[in-house]
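User: Modeling request: complex.
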Amino acid sequence: MPFTAPVAEQKFVLQHIAHIADLGVDDDILDAVLEGAGAFAEGEWAPLARAGDTAGPTWTDAGVKMPKGYGAAYKAYVEGGWGTIGSPEGFGGQGMPFVLAAAVLETLGAANMGFALAPTLTVGAIEALLHHGSPEQQALYLPKLSTGEWTGTMNLTEPQAGSDVGALRSRAVPRGDGTYAIQGTKIFISFGDHDMADNIVHLVLARTPDAPAGTKGLSLFLVPKYRLDADGNPGEPNDIRVVSIEHKMGLHASPTCVLSFGDNGDCVGELIGPEFGGIRAMFTMMNNARLNVGLQGVQVAEAATQRAVAYARDRMQGARAGAGVAIVEHPDVRRMLLRMKAQTMAARALVYYACGQVDRANAGDAEARALLDLLTPLAKAHGTDIGCEVASIGVQVHGGMGYIEETGAAQHYRDARITPIYEGTNGIQAADLVGRKLALAPGLIARMQGEVEDAGLRALVEACGEVGGVLATAAQDDRLAASYPFLTMFSVAVCGWLMEQQGRIADAGETPFLKLKAAACRFYVAQIVPEALGLKAAALASAEMLYAVDAETLAA
Amino acid sequence: MPFTAPVAEQKFVLQHIAHIADLGVDDDILDAVLEGAGAFAEGEWAPLARAGDTAGPTWTDAGVKMPKGYGAAYKAYVEGGWGTIGSPEGFGGQGMPFVLAAAVLETLGAANMGFALAPTLTVGAIEALLHHGSPEQQALYLPKLSTGEWTGTMNLTEPQAGSDVGALRSRAVPRGDGTYAIQGTKIFISFGDHDMADNIVHLVLARTPDAPAGTKGLSLFLVPKYRLDADGNPGEPNDIRVVSIEHKMGLHASPTCVLSFGDNGDCVGELIGPEFGGIRAMFTMMNNARLNVGLQGVQVAEAATQRAVAYARDRMQGARAGAGVAIVEHPDVRRMLLRMKAQTMAARALVYYACGQVDRANAGDAEARALLDLLTPLAKAHGTDIGCEVASIGVQVHGGMGYIEETGAAQHYRDARITPIYEGTNGIQAADLVGRKLALAPGLIARMQGEVEDAGLRALVEACGEVGGVLATAAQDDRLAASYPFLTMFSVAVCGWLMEQQGRIADAGETPFLKLKAAACRFYVAQIVPEALGLKAAALASAEMLYAVDAETLAA
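Assistant: Request completed. Predicted assembly structure:
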C-alpha cells in the first residue's frame, strides 16, 4: 500500500492550531514544504520501510551496515535540504519554525519510522550545541549537522542507569589540552553507528574526576566518530567500538547500538557547556526530543490508519443488503477506522500545538515557555499511547492478515511499542507532570473552561481542574500513584479542546477532507472524551491501595 | 525467568467461582491435577518457549518439522495423560469437568502459549466428533484424540472467506462408497502439519455438489492426514499438501499452515453429521474453542505478569528514601503491576465462570446453557483484550529491556495479538452479543444488581441494564455500532461482580495469596470498573456518526 503524506491535514493543523502564519510562514511556503517533503518521503523513503524491517542493519567488524537503498535515500534527503528546514540560519539551516520541521519529520517517519530516527536524533544534537556549545564547536559542527551530512546521537543510558541517569558511571578525564579522555559503555544508542554519513557526533553524558554523585555531577561531551582534522574534516577514527546491535521487537531500520568508548584509552571528547552542566544540556536535547517522540506516535498512527482504511475498502467480506461488501461498510469496522482517524488527528493537534510553543518560547514568549513545559509530558506520553493504540486497531481491522508480517500492519504494531518507553518512559512523563508542572495547569484549564462547548468535554475539563487541585497538595506518593490516570485525562481534555476548535472550522467546509475532519472531531468529543472521565476515580485514589501488599506478596 | 503455575489462584477460582465441588471434583483431585499439570508445564514446556519463538517450526518437502525438543515434550504430555483430563470417559478420557481441563490448558499455555495450541485445537475436534460423529467415527478417532496421540485441526478459513464462512468454496464430491473427494485450499490452519503425532485429524468445512449458497450449504468432513487401515491405524497418506507456513508476528511455536486438499484428486474425507450440518457442527467446535481462546488471554496475561513482577523486584533504579530501590517500589510501577494482577484475575474468573457453565449445560441445565451462550462472547473478546493489555503493560514495566527480544516480554506482546482475531474476531463476538444474546442479558444483570455492593460497580451494572434495554429495540446498525463498547462495559461489570465476590472471601484470609487477592479485587473495583462506565456514551451512540462520511471520504 503506497503511503500518501497527509498534506491537507498537516496544513490545517499548522494553520488553525499552531497558527503558523504568526510565525512568519505564508501559505506558499507551507504548501511547498509540505508537498515537497511528502513527495520525497513517498518516493524515496516509504518504499524502503519493509526492507528496513526484514533485512535491517547488520553489525560488522568495520561498523554497522545499513540495508540496501538506505545510503542513497539518506543522501537524497541531505541533498534535498530536508534536514535544514528548522536548522539555524547562521549555520546552513533555513531557520523555519520548529513546528514546520516537525511536520516534515512526521512525514518522513510516517513513510519510514525507523529511518526517520536518524534525523530525529540529529535535531537533539543541534539543539544541544546551539544552546550550550562554544562558538568554535558551533562553527565546526552545526553546518554539517544542519544538512544531515553528519548525524547526531544521544548517549545517556548505561546498563545500570536507565530512567535514573544520576546513576551513570562513564568517566571523562582531562587530557591536559582542554579535551577529555572518555571511557564507558553506553547502551540503547539509536543510530549509534551506520554507513550513511561522513561523521557521527555523539553527545555523551559522563562524570569528570571528583564530580559529585547523582545528576549534578554530570557533564556533556561531544565525541565525534572521526576526529576533525585541521580543516574541520573527519580525520582519524576516535576510540569508539560498536559492541553489538540489539535484537529489538521493531524499529529495525534503526540500529540500536551498544557503544564502548575508550577501550584503548584514546577516546577524545570536548566538554559542551560548563562542567556539571550536563543535566541541563541533556534536558535541552531531551525536551524537544520528547516532542519528537510524541510525533513518532503521530507517524505510526498515520501510517497504520492509511493502511487499515485501504485494506478495509478493498477487503470484501460478509453480506450487507444481500451482496458482498467491503468491510469498511460494517459498523464496527467503521467505528475502528473513525477512532483511528480521530485519535491520529488528536495526537497531531496536541504535538503540533506543543511544537508551536517551542517557536514562541524561542522568541522570548514566557507564557509559551510555561505552556510548552506543561504540554511536553502530555505530547510525549499521550502521543505515543495513541500511536500504540492506533497501530493495534490497525492490526485488528486486518483480521487474520494483520498477524501476517507481509501485510505491514504488524510492523506498525511492533515499531510503535518503543515510543512509550524511550526519551523518558511515559511513567516518567506522568511523574514530571505531577511533580514539576502542576502549578502550570490551572492557567490552561481556565482557558479551556472558557472555550469548550460540549457538555461532556466541559465535565472532563472541570474534572481535570478538580483532580489537579487535589494533587497539588497531596503527598508525593499519592501524587505519583495518580499521575498516569491524571496525565491521560488531562491529555484527552486538551485534545478534546483542540478537536472541538477544529470541528467548528471544518463544519463550515465542503471538501472531502473537511467533512472527514468534522466527523472525526465529532467522534472524538462524543466517544473518546467520555472515556477519559472514567479515569477520575483512579486519579483521585491514594497510594495506599497500591501498597496494600508488599513487593514479595505481589509475587504470591 | 522460570514460570510458576498459579496453583493457589486457580484453585481459588475453581472453588469459589466455578464451584467445582458441585461438579464432583474434590480437593484431593483438584490439588493433584493442578499441581501435577503445573510441575509438568514448568519442567517440560516452559523451557521450550523461547526456542519455539526464535527457531520456530520449519517447512520441508516432507512436512513441517517442529523445533528441537518439541517432539519429546509433546510425547511427555501424551504419556502424562494431560490430554485426557476432560476427554470423554468412554473413549479413553478421564471425563473430568471442562473447567478443570481449562485450568490445565491454561497452565500449559502460560508455560508455552504457541505449543498449547496443539491440544487446544484437538479439544475442538473431540467436541465435534462427540456431538456429531457416527459411533464408528467416534470409536476410531476419539481414543487417539483423547490421549493426544493424534491431534486435531479446524479448517474453516479460505483466502476469500475469513469471518464470512458462508463464502467458502472448498468442494466435497461423493466417491460412491460413502466417502467424499475433498478439494480446496484452506489458510490459517494452526498445527495444520507437524511431526509430533502419529496422525492429524483435519475437520474441514466444504460444499457438496449442488449445495445451497451461504452457510446453510456447508458440511463438515473428517479428513485424516493418514487414512486409517483395516486395523484403524494410520496407513496411506491422504492427498493433502502443506503449501507453506505463515510468517506471523508471534505464536511462532504454532505452525500456521496453508493446506491444499486434493491436488491429485485423491483426498478422501468422511461426512461428520448430516449433509449441510456443517455450520451447526462448526459452532459446536467453535463455541468451546472461543472459551479456550479467551483462556489464551489468561495464559499470556499470567505469563507476562509473572515476568514483570520478577523484573520489577530485581531491577534497581532511582532513589526512594535516599538509597537505590527496586522499581517495584515506585508508585506508578506498582500501579502497573497491580493492574496486571487484577486484570489477569478478572479474565480468569470470567473464563472459568463460563467454562463451568459448559459442564452444567452438558449435564442438562438449561439455565447454564443460556448463561454460557451469553458469556461466551464476553469471555472470548474481553479475555483476549485483557491478554493484550497486560502483555503491553508488561513491556512497559521492563522499560527499554522490554523492547529487546531476549528479555521475553516482547514475545508475550507479539503472541497475544492474534487472540482478539481468531475464532471469530472480537468484533464478531460483539455482534454475536448484540445480535443473538441480548435477550439473555437481563437475567444476569438482575442477579448482579441483587449482589454487588460497591456503588461504582452498581452504577456500571445499572448502566449495562439501561444500554442493553436500548439496544434490544434499536435498529441493527445502531446495535452493531454500539456493540463493542457495550461488550466491554458488560464484561467489566461481570468481572467486577466476580472480583467483588472473591474479595469478600479473601478479606477474611491471612496468607500472602489471599492478601494479594484481596488487594487486586479492591483495585479492580475501585479503578477498572469506573473506566468502563466511561464507555456508556459510545454504547448509546447511534450508527449515524460512523456513516457521516462515506468510505471514499474516509481515505481523504
